Amino acid sequence: MLKEPKVAKATASRRISFDSGLLTAGLRYHLREQFGIEQVSSPRLSEAFENLSHSGLHAVIRRSTWEALTDSQRLVWLMEVAGAEFKTNPESTAIVQKVLGVE
After folding, report:
1. SS3 82
2. Count of domains in the chain?
3. What is the mean pLDDT of the chain?
């Protein structure tokens, strides 16, 4: 079972900083929690998450903004930052459409 990722490092406690590994963990967690995704390990999705986790991508958000977001909004934010698009199928599997803006 996927656990909620630890909230990223606090920068001056007013911002939350996500490195590429935390972005990946957040996407996995929210796909599971929001859509009941049972599997996020199809070969293409695994490769996409692997690429994302080693991309060096970094994002910062105000702590107050993050705290005000619903879980669904957090997933949308994470997907936008990662340039990610996913779809789901009836078997509760996430299928990657795009990550880092690459199809």
Report:
1. helix
2. 1
3. 74
Q: Name the amino acid, one letter, at 82.
A: A
Rounded to the nearest 10 degrees, how much is the dihedral formed by the CA atoms of 70, 3, 78, 55?
170
Q: Specify if 103 maps to a domain.
A: no
Structural domain containing residue 55: 9-98
pTM, to two decimals = 0.68
Identity of the residue numbered 47: E
Question: Contacts for 80-83 with beta carbons within 8 Å, 24 or more apart?
Answer: 81/18, 81/23, 81/57, 82/23, 82/24, 82/27, 82/52, 82/57
Question: Going by C-beta distance under 8 Å and a sequence separation of 6 or more, which residues neighbour residue 103?
Answer: 97
